[in-house]
Amino acid sequence: MYFYRYMNKIIISNSKYGLGNDISEEDAMQEEGIIYYLTENEPGKFNRAWCLSHTSFFDFTKEDISLLTMPNAKYGNELPQWLIEKIECRQIMWINTQYPNWQHILEEKHRDKWRINIVGLGDVGGILLTGLRLMGGDVIEKIGIYDIDSNKVDRWLMEAGQILYPDENSIQPEVVYTDKDSLFDCDMFVFAVSAGVPPLSNSQSDVRMAQYEANSKIISEYAKLARQGKFKGIFAVVSDPVDLLCKKAFIESNINSNGQMDYEGLGPDQIRGYGLGVMRARAAYHAKKMGLGHSFEKYGRAYGPHGKGLVIADNIKCYDNNTSIMLTGKALNSNMEVRNVGFKPYIAPALSSGALSILATIRGQWHYSAVYLGGTYFGCRNRLNESGTELERLNMPDDLIERIKESYNSLGGM
Asked: Which residues form the Lactate/malate dehydrogenase N-terminal domain (predicted)?
C-alpha cells in the first residue's frame, strides 16, 4: 500500500499514483480525521465516491445492489489494525480517480450550517420550504428561493418570513430571494419544479411518470448551469420521477459542447433523489392500521422508486413476503386515495420525502433517498457522513433480494 500527503490530505492507494510527497505508514497513522483511498474504476458504471464502510470496498469489482447486503466472505485480514479502526469509525472515503474532477472532493470543507437554494415554489416547493423554515434552524443558515413566477417568490418571502416561533430565542433560517445566476452559490440546490402534474380528473395510476417529459427538459437546463458554475454541493431532486430525473441531471451535466460524455460536470455522488421517504411513511401508516405499526417503524424498509417498482419489506428481522407485497400495494395506492377524495397528494411527499429527509441528510442521519449505484439512481436507506454516502447493508432473505433486484434492473433499463 502507498501513502501520500496531497492537497494537505492523507491519501492511500494500492496502486502507485504520481502525487508526490510520499509519506510513511507511520505518518499516515497519525491522521485523526478523514483519509482518502484512491482507486480506478470505469466512470458511469461506478460512483465517484463512497464512505468506505466495510473492508470489502478495498477490492469490490462490481457496483450493484450487492452493496445493500452484508458480504458473505471475510475481508480485511491482511489490513493493519489502524485502517480497520478507521473503517469502523467511518473515517475513510473511497474515491474513483477515473472521474476527471475527483480532486474537487478533496477541496470540500466541513459546513456548520448549510445554504440551500430552492427552485420551484408550487405545491411541493412551498410546503418543502415551510418544513425547512420550521425545523432547519440548527443546520441551515439561509434558504434562497426562485421561481419563474415572481408572484410566487413574493408570496413565499412573506409567508415563510412570517413563520416564527413564539420563543424569541429560537433560531430559524432566513428566507431570501435568489436570482437565476446565483442559484448554485449554495451548499445544496433543491429542484422542486412540478410541471405536467395531471389534473384530479386523470385516473392514471403512476402520476409521477406523467411528469417526466416536462420535468426532464427543465432539469436539463439546471444541470447544465451546475456544470457551468462548477457546482460542488448537493443537487437534490424532489420533483417526480426523482430517480429518472437524477439520471437525466447526471447525463446532461456531463455532456460537453461536442455532445460527448466527459464526466466534467456533476459527480454522480453529488446528485440525490428525494421521493422514497413518503413511500416508507405511507407503508408505515397502513402497517399501523394492520396492527404492525411498532415493528414496521423499527424494522420495516423501503427500496426503489417512488412509484412502480417500489419494494416494501415488512420486517427485516422476520421478513414475510406476502405481507410485504400487500404493504407495497397499499403504499403505491395511497397517492390515488388522496386524489379520489378531491385533493392532490403533495403535503406528505413535500415533508416526508422532502424537508425531513433533506434535514436528515444534512445532519448525517439515516434516511431514504435515491443514490447512484452502478449507473442507476436507486432509493434505499443511507446516510451522508463526512467521508461520503454510507449505504445500510443488511442480511436479507433471498425473496427480498429478488424483489430488489427486479426493481433495480427495471430502473436501469429506463
From this structure: 115-255
